[in-house]
Write a structure and sequence with these properties.
The longest helix has 27 residues. This protein is α+β, with helices and mostly antiparallel strands. α1 links the parallel β3 and β4. It is built from 9 helices and 5 strands, in the order βββαββαααααααα. The protein has 2 domains: 108 residues, Lambda Exonuclease, Chain A (Alpha-Beta Complex); 120 residues, 23S rRNA-intervening sequence (de novo design (two linked rop proteins)), CATH 1.20.1440. Bound molecules: iron/sulfur cluster. Iron/sulfur cluster binds next to α3.
């Protein structure tokens, strides 16, 4: 604290009017000429200033929360960018306040409609902490499920032989997942797994989530969610392969090596998948 500035870090924020809550990186309280402490939110960003106003809107939302909580008028705040090590002031003028309130309304419209807006891939996505959840490259692209699978999951698509399915139980890759899971369950029945910690549980869970994710993605009913869940299934398949590679290295399982080799090299289904 300096004589004319107090600093509060990680201050909780909320606005019942806008339906927002969160936490401010820093709120400085500046003493004005009349001796009143006026909040001055400061938002820290790792990167550099962006072309659009998204950071200003986030900062203004913090100011609107503080105004409602503390019943004061907040004229400005500041953004600090780590890459340029530059801090600059932001005026909360009528246009920015309106845009911030409109953004909050749009956000609640999406929540009420239980709809997630489609991500649009931009350069800033590469440094976004939501990248793995949001998957803007995979989900944001205008591509059919068949094209996506052909490109990313290496399914083989034969011209004129594209199959369609109305039940996940008929999808070859789900059936392969079930076979693989059953074989993994048989493998871990071997009593030597009982003395090797959690490895049996882990491979069991990973194997089970392959067909389960394919089924869940299929039942969700949208291409976007099907793709997301196929990614999860692919991740689980990788987990199974990785655990099998570990088992292969453990001397006590030496005689299981041939079986592990078969599981690790299961052929992918050659049939394509297209959801009705
Ligand atoms: S990854 Fe998603 S949330 Fe992050 S910037 Fe890109 S679109 Fe926005």
């Amino acid at each position: 604290m300096r004589n004319d500035v107090r600093i509060e870090r990680g201050m909780p924020l909320r606005s019942t009017e806008l339906g927002l809550n969160g936490k401010a990186d820093v709120v400085e309280f500046h003493k004005d000429e009349s001796g009143c402490w006026i909040p001055f939110p400061v938002e820290y960003k790792r990167g550099k200033p962006k072309m659009d106003d998204c950071d200003k809107i986030q900062l203004c939302a913090q100011a609107l929360c503080l105004e409602e909580m503390l019943n004061v008028k907040i004229p400005s705040g500041a953004l600090f960018y780590g890459k340029t090590r530059h801090r600059f002031d932001v005026e909360f003028d009528d246009a920015l306040c309106k845009e911030t309130k409109d953004t909050a309304v749009r956000l609640h419209d999406f929540i009420d409609a239980r709809k997630t807006p489609k991500p649009v891939y931009m350069a800033k996505c590469d440094s976004c902490s939501f990248f793995d959840i949001c998957m803007p490259k995979a989900i944001g692209r205008k591509t059919s499920v068949v094209d996506y699978l052909k490109e990313n999951l290496k399914f083989e698509i034969c011209k004129g032989d594209i199959m369609t399915f109305d039940r996940f139980e008929n999808v070859p890759v789900w059936q392969d997942g079930i076979k693989l899971t059953t074989e993994v369950f048989k493998l871990i029945e071997d009593k030597r797994f009982r003395f090797k910690g959690d490895i049996a549980n882990q491979i069991q869970r990973a194997a089970l989530s392959i067909p389960n994710n394919i089924a869940e993605g299929f039942e969700r009913g949208t291409t976007q969610e099907l793709i997301a869940f196929l990614y999860y299934a692919r991740g689980s398949a990788g987990e199974v392969r990785s655990i099998l590679a570990v088992i292969e290295q453990i001397p006590v399982f030496d005689d299981l090596k041939s079986e592990i080799f078969i599981y690790s090299n299961k052929k992918r289904s050659k049939k394509s998948l297209k959801k009705h």
